[in-house]
Amino acid sequence: MTDPQKKQSWFYRFNLIIEKYSPDAFVFAVLLTIVVLILSQVATDTSLEASVIAWGNGLHGLMAFSFQMAFIICAAFVLAHTTAVSKLLSMLGSLPQSTNQAYILVILCTAMFSLLIWPMGLIAGGLISKEVARNASNRNISVHYPLLIAAAFGGFIVWHMGYSSSIGLAIATQGNPLEQQIGEIIPVTETLLTWWNILTIFITLAVVSVTIILLHPKKSIELPSTSENQSISNEIPVDRRPGIMGLLEHSRITSTILSIMLFAYIGLTFYKNGLDLNLNV
Predict the structure, then answer these.
(1) Alpha helix (H) ranges present in the chain?
(2) Who's near 104: CB < 8 A, 6+ residues apart?
(3) CA pair distance 82, 178, nearest whole angstrom
(4) Considering only CA atoms, which of 119, 167, 173 is closest in space to residue 281?
(5) Which helix (H) or strand (E) holds 183?
(6) Tens digits of per-residue pLDDT, 88-145?
């Protein structure tokens, strides 16, 4: 894209504003904390000392939830980089035959992963965007790589409507922080699995798909290079120490045993309690 074209593109100018002024997630959280602290002093009669103590005590109350979220993210990262999932993403990335198909595929794949495991949507969404761009480049399909990433984030926005919804699962969990205020446990059959929630997912993804397609640059522009030939399914060699411990650390024996126990636990839980989806499960 030439300089005059850049200056005339509202999409380009908007992108510059977002890059310049959109804060990092951590910075955003700290800024919100400061805003709430200021509001507590301006709008309430709470002392500064009491506000700081309440904030610190609140952090302790989030320890269990924070570990659950951290564990989900780590597990999703590992799952996204397994050979099976990497091959699946490579296969899916080779399917689009047109520009619109490329965008829609990224949106739908990210949405499906997000509904199952929300951090999986973020991780797999980026990986499949890269794979779609690589295949599109090889087939001379016109795609805008930054817009593919936007499509991935667009598919991610339905995560809270699916199986890994933090709020939906939290209020279905015995002893959750909101149980006393709500007065009961709300099962997922009354939230996540309702017809109106499922309908909302389809409508949201349809709106996102149309929006991304309309945002595709109409003019001839210089697209980012996607000439990298390495597939995401390539494995990285890992050094292994000798002996039985090295074998156990890098074999599927230990992870298979753990997986069997986890699936047995989940199966028995559902058998005894029904479809009792909650944050712990």
Answers:
(1) 3-8, 10-21, 25-43, 48-61, 63-80, 83-93, 99-116, 118-138, 145-156, 166-170, 179-182, 195-215, 244-250, 253-273
(2) 209, 213
(3) 37
(4) 173
(5) none
(6) 988 998 899 999 999 999 999 999 999 988 888 888 888 899 889 988 888 888 888 8
